What does this fold into?
Amino acid sequence: MLYRLLFTLVLRRLDAEQAHHLSFRALRLLAAIPGVLPLMRRLFAPRDPALRTRVLGLDLPGPLGLAAGFDKDASAPDALAALGFGFVEIGTLTAQAQPGNPKPRLFRLLADRAIVNRMGFNNGGSAAAAQRLRARRGQPAVVGVNIGKTKTTPEAEAVGDYVTSAKLLAGVADYFVVNVSSPNTPGLRNLQAVDQLRPLLTGVRAALDEASSRRVPLLVKIAPDLSDEDVDAVADLALELGLDGIIATNTTIGRDGLATSAAEVEAAGAGGLSGAPLKDRSLVVLRRLRARVGDRLVLVAVGGIESAEDVWQRLRAGASLVQGYTGLIYGGPLWPRRIHRDLSRRLRASGYHSLDQVVAAD
It folds into this structure.
């Protein structure tokens, strides 16, 4: 209730990117106070043992994680995890530092509980992020790393760009994600075509194995705008190459069925749409993937996650883990705690004793 009031009176009146930086900076300052981070964990971390799950060889306190895009530079993954997320994915990181697209580049569609972004992978580069992640040794949070292509790197040289990031970050990532599905880097989505995706994923896998003494789980993140046939093709390739999982889905370039006025949507302009309007399509893609790969790959669902009921639906459809981003923007800092609390109640009311019993129950 307090956050809703703050959002209505203050945050929604600020530029969306400015509001993001202001909120994130406040969290980082709070977490830097001695004793606050462990206190946050005690207050907000999932408590129900039935929510604990082991996925990708990682022990997680709950199935809801924070999707890439919120902490692009690994500035405060442990503070974000302390809000109650089961894991945090940082990035998207690129081999070279880059400023991203011109501002303004982040817009709220309030009537749809959605966001349009064309950030363009703004980040300080993989080497700087790797240094920050090395400095957090001993922290309990599970942190995944999401990598993409530097904008100035030609499409023909994309593999080398991703491999550079993989080598720099392999030793500090609990799991790794290849992002070929953002609409905000020219040509990036072309890399989802199997003939281009195969050498890219093969190169990243080899780089991770060379740079780390342990096997770092590798996933690929796909767009909701892929045709059903292309979804099948990526699933088959992931199985062929021995990937660990698929994240479904990234933002959409579609604008169908929005409640926001056409003028406001047009004013927001190009970019990826996230939030509630993505809910149905991302669920369709998830179900198609589960039908194609069964339990041979870990499926991570993202897109339109707002409530524990959304998480429950994705788990039953075959996801082992779920991620949110826009839900946090509209739901506030207590959102992950509420989701896990309500999910625990949902689990108990349904007669299940663990998440493993829920996954793919449909």
